[in-house]
Recover the amino acids of this structure.
């Protein structure tokens, strides 16, 4: 074999060796990375108008026995994948129609089994649903509540950024209690009181520690219905008319209607 041919053979051998070393299947063999299985349990509910997709590495996950790649309403799924060393696994929740990324999650090999849980509807995203706790009633005949206000100021533009209190009364004006420190980030401390008929109750929203409305010059009343021997997780929502003008606050969305809480 002449010198030129020998050099060509050596060059091809080096190229082949380089290619084999960069193959994902060969990485762990050389000890540079450790491959290990990962699992994410997805427990979510979507009430948005369009369907959602769960995207991992640019590919929509298949959901259910029919292998659909989009979902509405309830979703329960276990997603299996492989971590390569300390590589982060990224999962995006997107609107299938608009392609808007609604939320992004990052998972690492430090916790190979993890949970992705959320509730969403247009303009509202509540994360880490499985970590939320309902209040424990002290008496069977009571009615209990925790509140969150994720879209506060969306339509009212009140300018108030502090916590909210909810002064709760019966329709005859009798004070039942005050739900304190309601905000957009997490559910407030639990409040309970005895159930009584009629079940309609009125909650006035005020700046924390005061009797002053969080919207200047406007008294904000949320109408709710008591349920005997039940503990609710109420999502307060600012509402608007077709032109986007603030019309009030709704308190009918109860997360215990969509999830089982331990």
């Amino acid at each position: 074999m002449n010198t030129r041919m020998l050099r060509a053979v050596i060059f091809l051998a080096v190229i082949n060796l380089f290619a084999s070393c960069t193959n994902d299947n060969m990485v762990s063999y050389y000890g540079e990375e450790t491959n290990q299985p990962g699992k994410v349990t997805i427990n979510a509910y979507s009430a948005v108008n369009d369907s959602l997709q769960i995207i991992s590495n640019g590919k929509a996950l298949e959901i259910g026995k029919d292998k659909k790649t989009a979902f509405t309403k309830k979703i329960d799924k276990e997603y299996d994948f492989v971590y390569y060393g300390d590589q982060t696994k990224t999962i995006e929740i997107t609107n299938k129609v608009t392609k808007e990324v609604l939320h992004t999650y990052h998972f690492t090999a430090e916790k190979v089994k993890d949970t992705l849980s959320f509730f969403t509807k247009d303009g509202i995203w509540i994360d880490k649903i499985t970590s939320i706790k309902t209040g424990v009633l002290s008496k069977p005949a009571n009615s209990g509540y925790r509140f969150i206000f994720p879209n506060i100021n969306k339509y009212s533009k009140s300018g108030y950024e502090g916590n909210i209190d909810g002064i709760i009364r019966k329709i005859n004006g009798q004070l039942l209690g005050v739900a304190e420190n309601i905000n957009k980030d997490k559910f407030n401390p639990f409040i309970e009181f005895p159930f009584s008929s009629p079940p309609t109750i009125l909650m006035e929203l005020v700046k924390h520690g005061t009797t002053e409305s969080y919207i200047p010059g406007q008294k904000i009343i949320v109408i709710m219905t008591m349920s005997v021997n039940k503990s609710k997780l109420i999502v307060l929502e600012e509402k608007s008319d077709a032109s986007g003008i603030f019309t009030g606050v709704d308190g009918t969305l109860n997360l215990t209607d969509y999830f089982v809480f331990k």
User: Anything to note?
Assistant: Residues 3-32 have pLDDT under 50 and may be disordered. The radius of gyration is 26 Å.
